[in-house]
Design brief:
proton-transporting ATP synthase activity, rotational mechanism; elongated; ATP_synth_F0_fsu_mt_fun; mainly alpha; about 70 residues; 3 helices
């Protein structure tokens, strides 16, 4: 029983420390748009824009390769 008591005496007391602010780009993006009161649908708009830009770039590169061969 003394081992259990000594274990619990070593644990920190008081309130838990606060969370650190995220430092990675994904962590900052997640904190800005997904967590807490800031949660919104903007990531869906960002995803749509990314898909459109990726698709346009892919089509443009394919178009250039097509004209290179003919």
């Amino acid at each position: 029983m003394a081992d259990v008591v000594s274990f619990y005496k070593k644990l920190p007391t008081g309130p838990a420390p606060g969370f650190k602010k995220p430092t990675t780009p994904w962590g900052k993006y997640k904190a800005a748009y997904f967590e807490g009161d800031n949660a919104s649908g903007k990531p869906l708009i960002h995803l749509a824009i990314a898909v459109i830009l990726f698709g346009y770039t892919w089509e443009y590169q394919s178009h250039l390769k097509h004209h290179k061969d003919h």
